[in-house]
Amino acid sequence: MTSTPHHPDLRSQLETLATEAFRPELAEIDRMSTLDIARLMNGEDAAVPAAVAERLPEISAAIDAVAVRMARGGRLVYAGAGTAGRLGVLDASECPPTFNTAPGQVVGLIAGGPDAMVTSVEGAEDSPELARADLDALALTADDTVVGVSASGRTPYAVGAVGYARSLGALTVGLACNRGSALAAAAEHGIEVVTGPELLTGSTRLKAGTSQKLVLNMLSTITMIRLGKTYGNLMVDVRASNEKLRARSRRIVALATGAADDEIERALTATGGEVKHAILVLLADVDGPTAARLLQEADGHLRAALAAAHG
């Protein structure tokens, strides 16, 4: 059996992290009733949005920087290990159906590769070299953004990804859940959402993971709003890949235009099912090809295309 190398200072490092702190007042949680544990856990979770709220200026600055690069054709790349990596993969995988992003436009990298989504990959999170290899496979450019995600803020894979991406001129964001983290220091935009000690000592899939999900939701969603992927609060770039989404497409066109069902069907047929184009057909009284041209000239922003159509 091979032994795993241990860093002598790792235990002392972990002991200084708020996310790893032991809470003696919860030492007998296993003797509480199920309802009392649920109440306690719910109360813990209620503190997470307030921790995120404290970092909204940093989050907003990062989003604006990401949007500028993505408007130039850059990609948004998440990099993390364990729970943090899985949350990045989740957020990336939801962008194509929600915002009709191109394949590879939003990418989730997890230490250890796809197998690590469902099983633990030994030692992967400890390898900055693995992060560099994963980024090299993407042929990173200066228009891309790499978001390192790590509750501790010290995970070598996430810190390594950010450091390497920055050396290549890419935009970097470091999302951690401890103050004074190496990850935030390594990134151009450091975001430290301090969620404190967990209900179960060191189980950062709890409050820390919840905070990461909230911040990643903001990063992708608000960036897509900035890129014109929405019209008001309607998902006008939704990809109608199944019957539920086709029904949602018809409803979005109805909400945006107030048109009758038969008009909506005609507009969607004329535009190959493209919601944004169909709305433009109905609101600007143009044909499908004209709608496509106007949107292309407006870089996909429906409001700008409408303004151009109305002179």
Word description of this protein:
This protein is 51% helix and 8% strand. By secondary structure, it is of the alpha/beta class. Strand 1 (76-80), helix 5 and strand 2 form a beta-alpha-beta unit. The termini are far apart.
Short structural description:
This protein has helices at residues 10-15, 34-46, 48-53, 56-71, 82-99, 128-136, 156-167, 182-186, 207-226, 243-257, 261-270, 275-284, 288-297, 302-309; strands at 76-80, 106-110, 145-150, 171-176, 189-192. With 311 residues, it is of the alpha/beta class. Helix 4 (56-71) crosses helix 9, helix 6 crosses helix 7 (156-167) and helix 12 crosses helix 13.
Question: Could you name the key traits of this structure?
Answer:
single chain, 311 residues, alpha/beta, 5-stranded parallel sheet, 14 helices, 5 strands, disordered N terminus
